Amino acid sequence: MIGENGKLKFRWVLCFIIFSLALLIYGNHLLKERAKKLEDMRRTEAVEFMDDGWKKYRMMLYAGANMEYTDSEGNIRVIETEPVLLDVFDEAIKPYILGKTPSLGSFRITEGKRTSEFIQNFNDNMKHVKIWGAHKNRYISIAENEGLEEFKDINSFEELWAYMNKRNDEGVVYINELDIVGYDRTAQDARFIYDYGNGESKKLSINIVELLSLFSENYKDW
Asked: pTM for the whole thing?
C-alpha cells in the first residue's frame, strides 16, 4: 500500500508534469503567434518595398534618372528595365518573408544627364498647360484640377521626388494622381490649352495628359 507521503509525492509529481506541459503548450503558442506577427510585418514591409520600387522606377523613366538596387549583402544592381525590377522583387521578397535574409535591401535614384531638362519641361507645363474645369466653367491649372497645392518651380531632383510623394486633398500621392490628367480628375477626354500668361493662349490638340508627357513634351512649342 502507498502511504500518505507517497500519495502526496505522486500528486506533486503529477502537478509538476501537468504544469510543465501547460507551459510548453503556452510557450509553443506564443512562439507561433510571434512568428506569425513577424511574417505579417515582413509581408507589410515587402508591399512597401514594392511600392517604393515602382515609384522610383517610374520617376527614373519620367525624369531620365538613374536607378540602382542594393541587396542585404551590399551588392549593387543597376535597374534600367522593368524585367530587371521584377527580378529584384522575386529574389528579395520571398527569402525575406521566410526569414532567410535580414533585410529587403533598398532602391536609390539619382539625377541623370537630362534630368534638369526634363524638370524644366515639367515646370513649364505645370504652370502653363490648362484644362477645362467643368465645375469652374473656365480653364484651370493641372494642379487645381487634380487637387494639388498651388504649383511652384522645382529646382532639383530631390525637390521633384519630395513633390511627387506629397498627397492631394483625397490622400493620393501626386505621382499617382498625375499619372493621367483628364476631365474632372478622370481619364476621360478633356480640352487643353497652353496659357502664355500674358492674356494669350493656344489650343492643344490633345485629349488627356500623361505624367510622362509633362516631362518629355514642351507644349509651349507645339
From this structure: 0.81
